[in-house]
Amino acid sequence: MDGAFVQTAPLHAFQKRTESPVAFLDRDGVLNLGKAGYVNHPEEVQLLDGSAEVIAALRGQGYLICVVTNQSPMARGLWGPERLELLHTTLQELLLEQDPEAHIDAFLTCPHRYEDRCNCRKPSPAMLVLGHQLLRCQEALNPSLKPQLHAVPPPSVNWWGSKPIPPHPLDLMVGDRTSDMGAGWAFGARLFRVARTIGLAQVKERLSSPNDPGDDFQP
Ligand SMILES: [Mg+2]
Ligand SMILES: [Zn+2]
Predict the structure, then answer these.
(1) 4-207 is classed in which CATH architecture?
(2) How close is the Cα of 131 to the center of ligand 2, in Å?
(3) Cβ within 8 Å of residue 121, ≥6 positions away
């Protein structure tokens, strides 16, 4: 199993917008409640209050929405791509029930464990780079929530250097863990750390301001 799984929204017109900023969002602890031992079944997907509303607000500001998530239960053999599809279809449906504008443009998933030494697992920025390429650079993808494996670009990060310049100055990353902040930092994104029990709604006001530089972070 090499590369990251990519799923892009079939539920609305998938449109490449080269000039748009991207909001990269971690999944568990940001959009939905995380669970010790992973979110393994669709019925365990429980939205955090307000996450749909904040996604809709970001879309209203012109953001593309890209979920980037580490899901090692796949490499552990607990479940496979069919389950991933079911989990993300469920998450998208729940979001749309709460707010009809809460579309996700792409879900990117690293299926590996730390010890697999893959290129994609956060804090590698590789899934953010891939999301940037898929949503803003390459020819149109065939929209589908069916997980398709994509090779990720080899990450080139100087963790001791200064924070890179992102492709778009408003690009941002929201996460509940240091690995999320690391991936966002290495991509150059504005960083917004949230508590895992509150999630995206915690930074609702901040995300509405293009002048918020994001959290300080030193890898
Ligand atoms: Mg998380
Ligand atoms: Zn990986």
Answers:
(1) 3-Layer(aba) Sandwich (3.40)
(2) 14
(3) 70, 72, 110, 112, 113, 114, 179
Predicted confidence (pLDDT) at residue 15 exceeds the cutoff of 80: no
DSSP string over 43-79: GG--BPTTHHHHHHHHHHTT-EEEEEEE-TTTTTTS-
So what's the pLDDT on residue 153? 87
Q: What is the pTM of this model?
A: 0.96
Task: Give residue limits of the domains in the chain.
Answer: 4-207
Distance 75 CA to ligand 2 centre (A): 9
Phi-psi region of 185 (alpha: psi -120 to 50; beta: other; left: phi over 0): alpha
Ligand 2 centre to CA of 193 (Å) is: 22
Contact 184, 34 (CB under 8 A): no
216 included as an active-site residue: no
Structure tokens at 73: 């239960």
